[in-house]
Structure formats: C-alpha cells, structure tokens
C-alpha cells in the first residue's frame, strides 16, 4: 500500500515529502494538498512569508473584531443617553447621599441587532477558519512553518494588542472565562 500521498505519474525524486515527525524539508514538501508542492527554495520562502502574514492578519482581525464590539457598545450607550435626554456622565454616575465617591449606575443589558451579530459572526468565521488552517499546517511538523506561526503570532499580537491595556471589567477580559 503506497502511503506517500504522491502522484504515481511523477518521478520519485519529485514526490511530496510528508512527515508526521519534526522535519526541515524544504524542496518537495507538500502542505494541505498536492497542489501546494514546494519545488524550490524560493517557493519555500514564499510559503514561510505567507504563513507568517496569515498569522499577523489573524491577529489584526481579532483586533478589528474587538474594535467593532466597542463601536456597537458605544453606539448603544450613545442611543441610550440621547433617548433619556441626559448627559452621559449624569446618566451613568450616581452621587452617594453621604458625600462618598460617585459610583456607576447599572448598565442596561445590550444585545446586538441581527445585522451587527452577522458582522461579528463574520469576524469569528475568519478567525476560526484561519486558526484551523494554521493548526493543519502546524501538524506537518515542519520547523520553518512552525517558526513562522510562532513569530507571526508574536508580531501580530505586538502590533494589534495595545488596545487591551487598562481596566479589565469582564470575566473574559480578565481571563476568567470558562473556555
């Protein structure tokens, strides 16, 4: 039984090299399908750069999703303050009668509209799909691909995560979610 996953019409020296063990195959490595067959060093370098950029773009999409969530929450808060006719500070802060520190009023629950949830779901779809493809690529145990994934996540997080510094108010933001 031939387990090489190579095309039988190709000469043996150009068959796909697929390994489930750690490897550094460059020439004749195949990823995800026989069509992604690396035939030159330039092709391998292009693959490494492409995987690196895929991870960076994934992190940027995560940031974009967070920014969109913040936007719809801001829009909701703005619509509440306009509908109540009071300024944002007056509506959200109650003064204590004993002269203590002001405190925030309870925020009304917010559920995105169908259109907003569709956009949020599209962000999740892109993130999940890219993550799944990256997981499949990592399962080739190719050192260059794995390093590209690691360094791409570092650069992508470095570039896109400066928004998370500050007060953490939700369990998810504090890292206390269940999954």
Automatic annotation (TrEMBL):
It holds the Pfam family Ctr. Keywords: Copper, Copper transport, Ion transport, Membrane, Transmembrane, Transmembrane helix, Transport. The keyword Kinase does not apply. Signal peptide: none annotated. GO terms for molecular function: copper ion transmembrane transporter activity. One of its GO terms (cellular component) is membrane. The keyword Transmembrane helix applies. Belongs to the copper transporter (Ctr) (TC 1.A.56) family. SLC31A subfamily. This is Copper transport protein. The gene is ctr4.
């Amino acid at each position: 039984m031939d387990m090489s996953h190579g095309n039988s019409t190709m000469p043996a020296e150009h068959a796909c090299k697929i390994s489930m063990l750690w490897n550094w195959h460059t020439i004749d490595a195949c990823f995800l399908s026989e069509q992604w067959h690396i035939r030159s060093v330039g092709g391998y370098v292009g693959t490494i750069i492409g995987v690196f950029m895929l991870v960076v773009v994934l992190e940027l999409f995560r940031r974009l999703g967070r920014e969109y969530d913040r936007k719809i929450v801001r829009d909701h808060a703005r619509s509440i303050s306009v509908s109540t006719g009071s300024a944002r500070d007056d509506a959200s802060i109650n003064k204590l009668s004993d002269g203590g520190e002001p405190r925030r009023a309870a925020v009304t629950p917010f559920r995105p509209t169908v259109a907003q949830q569709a956009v949020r779901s599209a962000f999740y779809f892109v993130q999940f799909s890219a993550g799944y493809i990256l997981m499949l690529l990592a399962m080739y145990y190719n050192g260059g691909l794995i390093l590209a994934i690691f360094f791409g996540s570092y650069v992508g997080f470095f570039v896109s995560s400066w928004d998370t510094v500050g007060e953490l108010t939700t369990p998810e933001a504090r890292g206390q979610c269940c999954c």
